[in-house]
Each structure stands twice: as C-alpha cells, then as structure tokens.
Specification:
Strand content: 25-35%
Strand order of the largest sheet: 1-3-2
Helix content: 25-40%
Shape: globular
Structural class: alpha+beta
Radius of gyration: 14 Å
Largest sheet: 3 strands, antiparallel
Distance between the termini: 27 Å
Bound molecules: coenzyme A
Number of helices: 2
Number of strands: 3
Length: 80
C-alpha cells in the first residue's frame, strides 16, 4: 500500500515513481499490479492518472471492509 503522510513526506506521485524506478530498469519485470478498495475513489483516480488500468474486480478481497471488493489495477512497465 502506498500512503502519503503529512506534512513533510514526498507526494504520492514521488512515492509511486520511486517505488517503480527499480522495476522499470529491470526488463524481467513486465508489469506492476496492485489492489485498491472499490470505494477509494481518490486512490483509483491517482493510479489511473499514472497509467494504471483496471483489469478486474476481486470479490471478498477485504473481508473486514464494506463493501469487501477490490479493484485490480495493472501498469505495463515496458512498451510492447
Ligand atoms: C493515494 C495517495 C497516495 C495519492 O497521493 P497524493 O500526494 O495526494 O497524489 P498526487 O501526487 O497526485 O498529489 C496531489 C496533489 O497534492 C500535492 N501534494 C502532494 N504532496 C505534497 C506535499 N508534500 N507538499 C505539497 N504538495 C503536495 C501535489 O502537488 C498535487 O497537487 P496538484 O493536483 O495541484 O498537482 C494519497 O491520497 C494517500 O496517501 N491516500 C491514503 C492512502 C491510500 O488510499 N493509498 C492507496 C491505497 S492502495
């Protein structure tokens, strides 16, 4: 999970770019995947702004949350 803490940390964008930097340099790693709670619209928009695409809804992924669904997002790290 990516989370920006206030007030002195880097932005979410900077945290994401740092997290993906090593993967982007490695040809063996083809894509990044993550799950976001279906109700977390800010996070969904954030990842979509950074090129992630929703590929599936995962039922009962968060059993303690209501609703329990997660969106699976995927980012291809290299051009085809
Ligand atoms: C999702 C999340 C990581 C996105 O991070 P974010 O920093 O808000 O996203 P962005 O990098 O797009 O920044 C949004 C705006 O805040 C500004 N900002 C972010 N951090 C800042 C900082 N430290 N100082 C000044 N401005 C900052 C950005 O410049 C940007 O402004 P803009 O829209 O005018 O360009 C963040 O909202 C978060 O931690 N959410 C809670 C945890 C969560 O839901 N995580 C995802 C679960 S999988």
């Amino acid at each position: 999970m990516l989370a920006r803490t206030r007030p002195f940390t880097p932005s979410g964008t900077q945290l994401l770019q740092r997290s993906l930097a090593a993967c982007v340099c490695d040809d063996v790693i083809e894509e990044a995947e993550l799950h976001v709670h279906v109700g977390n619209l800010d996070a969904l928009r954030f990842y979509e702004r950074h090129g992630f695409v929703s590929v599936a809804t995962c039922i009962d992924y968060y059993p303690r949350l209501d609703p329990p669904e997660a969106v699976l997002l995927r980012l291809r790290l290299h051009a085809e």
